[in-house]
Amino acid sequence: MNYNLNPFINGLEQLNIHPSDEQLVKFIMYYEMLIEKNKVMNLTAITEFNDVVEKHFLDSVSLIQVKNFDDPIRVIDLGTGAGFPGIPLKIMFPNLKVTLMDSLNKRILFLQDVISKLKLDDITAVHGRAEEAGKNPLYREQYDLCVSRAVANISTLSEYCLPFVKVGGQFISYKSSVIDEELSAGKKSIHLLGGKLDRVYKFSLPDSNIERSFVMIDKVSNTPKRYPRKAGTPGKEPL
Question: Which of 6, 48, 82, 230 lies 20 to 30 Å from 136 when distance is taken between CA atoms?
Answer without folding.
Answer: 82
